[in-house]
Write a structure and sequence with these properties.
Strand content: 5-15%
Distance between the termini: 96 Å
């Protein structure tokens, strides 16, 4: 078949034009293609061990950490989990996770929001009529620690060991704890500023029980523990025991040099839905990773939970809805919570994609230096081994790595030592 000259010319021009456009667009197409995700650094397990040993140097009988990532699971433990028997710290053992419980409570409440059983920006008194004297306090204010409700634990544990012994075996009602908070001046107007308070999550527990008609333990079990297969996680209240192999906790008295107090057995009734969950390193890794991967909340709800505001002036620490975010020195952001209950410090964090997680424990409390040291497991696990700073007297070049001075750990309970 003979192609007419005009058509032939049009085809030739079209082919040339396509070739030219292809050549011109090639660089732009290449540049606009989604870049390959940077490979996460391998965890610096020697650095993790150094942080654990530093926690021991600062007063913890033992410490442990468990990292989970694409390259597998890595566990480290130092010291003892039981000073009397001398039993070594055990990454399979259970322990009290303190305020990491707040994230469990937040997940349950946010699931209820998804089910249209309450609204984040509705006043708390809509659901718990007459509970709070200020009708402006909303559900969101509770989850973000912006309600202004005073933290009753400041007065309760003003003297650390006597305060603990006074409540070790006591069983409180939620209302009694709220009344303790309301007996003190409010710390801020609703929504104005972040002021950490255990009272907020006592009220969260009350909301959960009011809306479900069941104890908070049932909500944890049905909505989180069973679906994720958390075999070593439980809400234990008011029983004082930790069943099975567990870590014993040791509380530092306020008086320097005074002997440690074994604080393992207690009701934790002073905290309840703000801090009475017991778990293990593996279960905490599973929980934070599953949460960040969207297994517990819808994408929109998880986005709301991870929308954060600063908790201090360092611009590295933030709080969302029952969830902390830390910005590490390498640029990595991790989400989770810290935990303090008498005798136990806990960190449980994951990257936003849920692919890497770390849980760490030191079996002491009321000793902030140990808590700060334990927090350095996050840097080692998520940022990897950092280059050694190099400098000479004749060199004006910046060092290979920035000087990193650990910030004091955030406090979930008052500390005097």
């Amino acid at each position: 078949m003979t192609v007419p000259l005009s058509s032939h010319r049009r085809l030739t021009v079209s082919a040339a034009l396509i070739a030219a456009l292809a050549g011109a667009l090639a660089p732009a197409t290449s540049a606009s293609a989604a870049p390959a995700a940077p490979q996460a650094p391998a965890p610096d397990m020697a650095g993790v061990v150094a942080a654990l040993e530093s926690a021991m140097t600062n007063g913890a009988p033992g410490a442990m950490a468990r990292y989970s990532g694409p390259d597998g699971v890595k566990e480290r433990a130092v010291g003892v989990r039981d000073r009397e028997s001398g039993a070594a710290m055990d990454t399979q053992a259970r322990f009290r996770i303190g305020s990491v419980s707040k994230t469990f409570s937040s997940v349950v409440l946010l699931q209820l929001v998804q089910e249209d059983r309450l609204e984040l920006d509705a006043p708390v008194n809509t659901y718990l009529e007459g509970l709070l004297p200020d009708g402006r306090i909303t559900v969101r204010h509770l989850l973000t620690h912006r309600s202004g409700l005073a933290d009753y634990t400041n007065a309760m544990f003003n003297q650390t060991v006597p305060g603990f012994e006074a409540v070790r075996n006591r069983v409180f009602s939620y209302q009694e704890l709220v009344d303790l908070s309301l007996s003190e001046p409010r710390t801020t107007e609703p929504g104005v500023a972040y002021k950490y308070s255990n009272a907020n999550f006592v009220v969260v527990g009350m909301l959960i029980e009011k809306l479900t008609g069941r104890p908070v333990a049932d909500a944890y079990q049905r909505r989180i523990i069973k679906p994720l297969g958390l075999r070593k996680t439980a809400y234990v209240h008011p029983d004082t025991r930790i069943k099975g192999t567990h870590v014993r906790g040791y509380l530092h008295p306020d008086e320097a040099g005074a002997p440690l107090v074994d604080s393992t057995e207690q009701t934790v009734s002073w905290a309840q839905s703000a801090g009475a969950v017991i778990s293990s390193p593996a279960d905490l890794n599973t929980f934070t990773s599953a949460l960040m991967r969207g297994r517990l909340l819808s994408p929109a709800t998880l986005e709301a939970m991870t929308t954060v505001t600063p908790t201090d002036t360092t611009n590295t620490r933030f709080y969302g809805l029952g969830l902390r975010r830390y910005n590490l020195t390498c640029g990595t952001q991790v989400y989770g919570h810290t935990g303090t209950v008498q005798g136990f410090y806990t960190y449980a964090f994951s990257t936003r994609d849920g692919r890497r997680s770390l849980s760490a424990l030191a079996n002491t409390s009321n000793h902030g230096a140990a808590n700060t040291a334990l927090g350095e497991t996050l840097e080692a696990a998520f940022c990897g081994k950092q280059p050694t700073p190099t400098s000479t007297a004749s060199s004006t070049a910046p060092s290979a790595a920035p000087d990193h001075t650990p910030l004091p750990a955030e406090r979930d309970l008052p500390e005097r030592y």
